[in-house]
Specification:
With 180 residues, this protein is of the alpha/beta class. It is 36% helix and 24% strand.
């Protein structure tokens, strides 16, 4: 009985929303290599140190669409996809969008060796104990989520990908436009 009541409440709430409110087109997300969620999902709050030394909280990115990538310098697929994250940031980064890389169970030395003295064009945060990754159900790396301007998860992907593809850029532009 309680299950039916919850189902009716959920359906009522969904019907009260404008069509497509806060969601992504599933086919567009699929073409970009991501799985769109039927409704935006609440994403856990976090506060982590950045490579620059300052702390960054999830709230710092509010108002931007964010591609949140959990990665590690010791992960071969992560190392392979990292340049495409940099190219994506260079193509679309600005006041409406950013890539955010969260290094999981990694060392600053490992990250520094991987980066080879260059600074990526987006924030790299350090989740040395893996607690933030755990809160996001990112049990392995790489795991990536597309967050809306409210910080809710719109879509997700486990595994590596070329993040700067035309399809991904179209998906991000759509997420930016929907949120305006």
């Amino acid at each position: 009985m309680i299950g039916r009541i919850l189902l009716v409440m959920l359906l009522t709430a969904m019907l009260a929303l404008p069509a497509g409110a806060g969601t992504l087109d599933r086919e567009l997300a699929k073409a970009a290599g991501m799985e769109a969620y039927p409704v935006p999902l609440k994403a856990a709050a976090f506060e982590l140190p950045a490579l620059t030394g300052e702390a960054r909280a999830k709230a710092h990115y509010r108002g931007k669409v964010v591609l949140l990538n959990f990665w590690a310098s010791w992960c071969p697929p992560c190392r392979e996809e990292f340049p495409s994250l940099e190219r994506l940031q260079q193509a679309l980064g600005g006041k409406d969008f950013t890539v955010l890389a969260v290094s999981v169970r990694d060392s600053e030395d490992g990250i520094a060796r991987f980066l080879g003295g260059r600074a990526p064009p987006f924030d790299v945060l350090l989740d040395t104990e893996g607690k933030t990754a755990q809160n996001y159900r990112a049990m392995g790396v790489p795991v990536t989520y597309l967050l809306d301007r409210e910080g809710r998860m719109l879509a997700g992907k486990t595994g590596p990908q070329a993040w700067d593809s035309a399809e991904m850029q179209r998906l991000i532009r759509t997420a930016i436009e929907k949120a305006q």
